[in-house]
């Protein structure tokens, strides 16, 4: 009997929670605290000039001990393409602005 593949939503939820290891960061250690690195999916807000952008679903290695994030070269190239406008935004959101 053939096994049913896992549901994508369940897979991504487990990945975000750090419950799935795809293997890229296996045996890698943090250069700052020597903690182990786990794979996660994060949202990355960035200020570009006078505007803000949100890059969603970014695969990243995160140190379990100190929280330092590590990005692969291809992820950084995709982020750069997004910020420089070479990729079309999927959607736009509005946000509240506060001053202190």
From TrEMBL:
Upper lineage: Bacteria, Pseudomonadati, Atribacterota, Candidatus Phoenicimicrobiia, Candidatus Pheonicimicrobiales
Matching InterPro entries: Znf_MqsA-type
Identification of the protein by name: YgiT-type zinc finger domain-containing protein
Gene3D superfamilies named among the record's database cross-references: 3.10.20.860
NCBIfam families per the UniProt record, alphabetical: YgiT_finger
Organism: Candidatus Infernicultor aquiphilus
Domain of life: Bacteria
């Amino acid at each position: 009997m053939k096994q049913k593949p896992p549901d994508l939503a369940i897979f991504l939820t487990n990945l975000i929670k750090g419950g799935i290891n795809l293997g890229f960061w296996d045996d890698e250690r943090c250069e700052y605290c020597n903690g182990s690195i786990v794979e996660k999916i994060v949202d990355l807000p960035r200020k570009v000039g006078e505007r803000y952008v949100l890059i969603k679903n970014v695969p990243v290695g995160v140190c379990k001990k100190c929280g330092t994030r590590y990005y692969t070269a291809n992820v950084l190239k995709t982020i750069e393409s997004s910020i420089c406008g070479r990729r079309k935004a999927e959607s736009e959101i509005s946000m509240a602005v506060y001053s202190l």
